[in-house]
Amino acid sequence: IRCWSNIPFITMPLSRAHGKPFAHRSELKHAKRIVVKLGSAVVTRGDECGLALGRLASIVEQVSMLQNQGREMMIVTSGAVAFGKQRLRHEILLSQSVRQALHSGQSQLKDMAIPVLEARACAAAGQSGLMALYEAMFTQYSICAAQILVTNLDFHDEQKRRNLNGTLHELLRMNIVPIINTNDAVVPPPEPNSDLQGVNVISVKDNDSLAARLAVEMKTDLLIVLSDVEGLFDSPPGSDDAKLIDIFYPGDQQSVTFGTKSRVGMGGMEAKVKAALWALQGGTSVVIANGTHPKISGHVITDIVEGKKVGTFFSEVKPAGPTVEQQAEMARAGGRTLAALQPEQRAEIIYRLADLLTDQREEILLANKKDLEEAENKGRLALPLLKRLSLSTSKLNSLAIGLRQIAASSQDSVGRVIRRTRIAKDLDLEQVTVPIGVLLVIFESRPDCLPQVSALAIASGNGLLLKGGKEAARSNQILHHLTQEALSIHGVRDAVQLVNTREEVEDLCRLDKLIDLIIPRGSSQLVRNIQKAAKGIPVMGHSEGICHVYVDMDASVEKVTRIIRDSKCEYPAACNALETLLIHRDLLRTPLFDQIIDMLRVEQVKIHAGPKFASYLTFSPSEVKSLRTEYGDLECCIEVVDSVKEAVEHIHKYGSSHTDVIITENEQTAEFFLQHVDSACVFWNASTRFSDGYRFGLGAEVGISTSRIHARGPVGIEGLLTTKWLLRGDNHVVSDFSEHGSMKYLHESLPLPQRNAS
């Protein structure tokens, strides 16, 4: 804890030797000294008269938060001219109205004209008010701010440079936020653009160059330049083909076409890029981002420091491989080529992948063994996740069988006609199946997911981006290599991409222009995080697998223990494992109930008692904390219900619409349960573990969806397809079908073409 003026604040162990800028966004969290440059468009209102107070308050809050973490924050701000313009306009209007009232006896304000205000005068009138505003805002967070006004001459005079440097260091040492601005009241006209040739030469002719100069002089770790655009685009923002550049490297200027400057301020994007590259050359990392967007301005600065993909990051280190955006574009192009192949060719790729899984078994298991050893040594994974991470010969054989099932069933998946209608004479309409586009599948600790999902994407003609967990890096790498080897037999190697960059999952979920569907495979927390982070991209999956087994009063003694044991103990980490066991009240204190409890004890299943079950017992197991718990281990909850209707109500209240089972010999009771339980999978006298794409005969699954739109339950090839409409006509126009037209609608259903019997 450090103190200044009796105000305590917590410091972070942030330190690094200044010299080289950060190579990756993920390293920005280590930035100790940060300059935030606020462009005129960020600070001022849309009418350019006055300040955007709400936006400014949000920026001050973020800067204060980072300052109180122990970082050293500096602000280079615009806004004095706009603030002064507002004050001077007000004064002019007031004085004119008084003079007019004295002259004519009435206030005829409508005829008053406001003269053009000179910028230096506006700056002189606005500087004190702007600083007073900053001081008032920072005071709310117990932080002191200090104003420094500079001109280009201050950097050319060595003594003034040393004085400025010393002042800034002293302010930072005292935990004061310096607020720096060009002294626009006396600043000379801009000089010709003869600078930016080296680290020691840069003219301060706008706040972009000022921020860059200060960042290098003060050996700053990070310069954040906030403007009114998302970052740097390869062509002027708003043009049809403009793409946001995620990472900009020195030498990339030739690939960028600059547009006009912002509505206010001295510099445009070209000036910002030149200043940013100059600062980067001097050892300071730079991010240019949007400080005006209402949805992100409230956390844009903290997001940048946390390493999130915001704006354009300037880096000297080019990655060895393609960016994730490039990978998504490659997957889309590859997917379209894949969809254009003959069904037999797509099946051939999948058969080849199945063969490679068995032929290269030793290499796969060796890579997986290294992943397991590293995870165990680091203690990174819980036992259920370690089980998911593990591959075996039997798992690989099962995978190969499943892939061959997919290949056999995929012959007519893409391009299948599902509806034909004759709209009118010689005007026929068809609805056909087509791929969704580019899928992003994010999975944890389960490398067997990679070939399964790849095969389904290949069969359905979709491009695929895969993001696996670090714990399975080696396993995923070799499995992806084998997948691309199989794809290469028909020249579509790029259709399946493995993301190996440092992209955070949250950043991937923002690529709404490149990704069409996100499918998470992992813990309920992972799924919830993705559902929360996805912006404009549909997410297919389930956040929890709270599966129930209801033992009815008419249940068979022989079936009960077998089904419960299989549902809970066969693979307790699976999302389709039993989590809550519902017992009919009449079965309590019966031999059947004792058999259930004895079996669970033998299998070392920890029992949690539901509230009603606990009330029947003198000495009960630990009472459950929540009836909505997915244990994912050898644990389960037991609760008592009075009837099948109450069981259904319990499932609807506490379940996750995944998989629910009834065990009974009463067909009427079973049918009531099957028809009334609103879950993706509802079974009678069968284990919850049957809720699986492979066991359903789908070959494999990309996941189990509890959504009610598009696909539900285990999702195989069919769930990865959508449709499009094909209309074949002969000089048809809508006006021919008007009241006085020559044609009539027929809307006749036509027979579908025969499906491939193979």
TrEMBL record:
Residue ranges crossing the lipid bilayer per the database entry: none
Any one GO biological process: L-proline biosynthetic process
Any GO molecular function: glutamate-5-semialdehyde dehydrogenase activity
Keywords: Amino-acid biosynthesis, ATP-binding, Kinase, Mitochondrion, Multifunctional enzyme, NADP, Nucleotide-binding, Oxidoreductase, Proline biosynthesis, Transferase
GO CC aspect terms: mitochondrial matrix
Top-rank taxon, per record: Eukaryota
Ranges where the Aldehyde dehydrogenase domain occurs: 323-588
EC number(s) per entry: 1.2.1.41, 2.7.2.11
Record's keyword annotation contains Kinase: yes
UniProt catalytic activity: L-glutamate 5-semialdehyde + phosphate + NADP(+) = L-glutamyl 5-phosphate + NADPH + H(+); L-glutamate + ATP = L-glutamyl 5-phosphate + ADP
Keyword Mitochondrion: yes
Gene3D superfamilies to which the protein is assigned, alphabetical: Acetylglutamate kinase-like, Aldehyde Dehydrogenase, Chain A, domain 1, Aldehyde Dehydrogenase, Chain A, domain 2
Subcellular location: Mitochondrion matrix
Pfam families registered for this protein in UniProt: AA_kinase, Aldedh
Broad class of where this protein is predominantly found: mitochondrion
Pathway(s) of this molecule: Amino-acid biosynthesis; L-proline biosynthesis; L-glutamate 5-semialdehyde from L-glutamate: step 2/2; Amino-acid biosynthesis; L-proline biosynthesis; L-glutamate 5-semialdehyde from L-glutamate: step 1/2
Domain Aspartate/glutamate/uridylate kinase positions: 32-290
Role of this protein: Bifunctional enzyme that converts glutamate to glutamate 5-semialdehyde, an intermediate in the biosynthesis of proline, ornithine and arginine.
Family that this chain belongs to: In the C-terminal section; belongs to the gamma-glutamyl phosphate reductase family.
Quaternary data: Can form homodimers/multimers.
Protein name: Delta-1-pyrroline-5-carboxylate synthase
